[in-house]
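Final report, Chapter 2: Outcomes

The project's central promise was a pipeline that accepts a single protein chain and returns its three-dimensional structure in a standardized token representation, suitable for archiving and comparison. That pipeline is now operational. To close this chapter, we reproduce one record exactly as it appears in the project archive, with the input sequence first and the structure output second.
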Amino acid sequence: MKVFKIVLFSFLLFGLFSCQQPIPDKGPIKIAISKAVPAKSYKNYVRWIHSVDSTIECLDMHHLSYDSAILMLKECDGLLLTGGTDIYPGRYGKEEDTARCWNPDFKRDTMEANLIREGIKLEMPIMGICRGLQNLNVFFDGTLYIDLPSDLDTIVKHQLPKTYKANHEITIQQGSLLHEISGVTSGFVNSNHHQGIEVLAYQLNGIARTQDGLIETIELKNRGDYPFLLGVQWHPERMDYTNPLSGKIAHRFVEEAKRYSNNYSHE
């Protein structure tokens, strides 16, 4: 009888463990970067992300075909839209102003529009920096100033020759996503852009502005309906990470990517 009980207990114990499903190893967090190579300056984006978590895989989308980029994005946990050349004005109804643009990249425009569309479909965290902010506004049917000094007659220096040190102050809307992340309602940021948001897309809120009224940060109006979408006009990846308008943004983006990874099973 004693032997029978031991055998029965062993059988039940084996059955208990064999019925448990192993926890899948999801591997490292993956961030899709719209353009991360080949220019040396693009490595700053990777360093910025790695300042939070050095194990994160940063994957460059720019060299891929459109279809391959979408397939790769589906294996990622966040999308980072980086800075760069001007967006083709034909995408926001100003084709006649193309001559005033700096090296528009038609392939990149199409690639990033596809990535934004798919990222939104996947409800993936999306972060836009400089051109990335402008691209998000254009994607949602907003428009851009072609050249700030001539179109806005701005009193703020948004760009200086060959430097990212055209520093200026921004004022941040209380209760906004950026205020929540940074904990500040104003601060100084770097700047290197000659274009900016002219007409803000209806689905977006402008939540930080410079003294001349230019929108420097965007979020979705219906913020509660989407996990995370933020665009900033400055370059946090080139700032001191201890600045709340740099390091804290990186931390929040990475946190959102990790949350997405935990809640979403890649198939």
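Archive annotation: The chain has one domain: 29-263.
This record, like all others produced under the grant, will remain available to the consortium after the project formally closes.
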